[in-house]
Every structure is written in structure tokens, then in C-alpha cells.
Description:
- The chain is an all-alpha fold.
- It has six helices and no strands.
- 87% of the residues lie in helices and 0% in strands.
- Helix 1 packs across helix 2 and helix 3 packs parallel to helix 6.
- It is elongated and about 65 Å long.
Amino acid sequence: MTERSRTETVRLIRTSAAHTGNRLLDTLVEAVRDVALAEAEKEPASRDLVLDELARHEQSLFRRLSLFVLARFGSTEQVADALADRALIDDVNVWHEYAELLRAASAISTPRSESRSSR
């Protein structure tokens, strides 16, 4: 084996290991997300329990998951509170989920606004 092929082999192994690690992390995040959504969908008390648990953790991953749950099952008050939260607005790590929450809230409020204007 030449030095060049050995170097290429090592690079491929490292790349493969990095991707395997990412796949594992992705799988774990998806599992937590799916369980959170399944529980939140059951009833408001379950949703609140999920949101409380996610809020106990400081990492942005948990804030992102919380916004994801809110976009699907959050009460009007919970969604409004999250959208008004300055820390979330300023947190670049959650901008995607914040935008999705804003989009979901807009979709809910738009039909009502249109029906009022058509009266």
C-alpha cells in the first residue's frame, strides 16, 4: 500500500466514522422528537409535561424541540409567549424552528382575519 493510498484510506475511515456518529445523533434526536410529539398530542396536560421537561435543559437542541412541539400542539397562549420571548428571537440556533412556529401561528390566524374582512 502506498503512502497516498494509506492516507486516502485513513481519510475515508475518519469520514465514515464521522457520518456514523451523525447518523446516530440524528436517530436519537428523531426518537426524542417523535416521543415528544406523540405525548404532546394526547392531551394538554401531556403537552405541558413534555414542554416542561424540554425547558429543564439548557442546550439549544431542547429549545428547538420545544418550538417544534409548540408549532404542532401549542396552545394559543404558549405560542404567543414563545414568539414574544426575546431570548428565542435572538438565539440563532433556533431560528429555523422559530420561523416554523411563526408560520404555523400565521396560518392559524390568517383564516380568521380573512373571514372577518369578508363580513
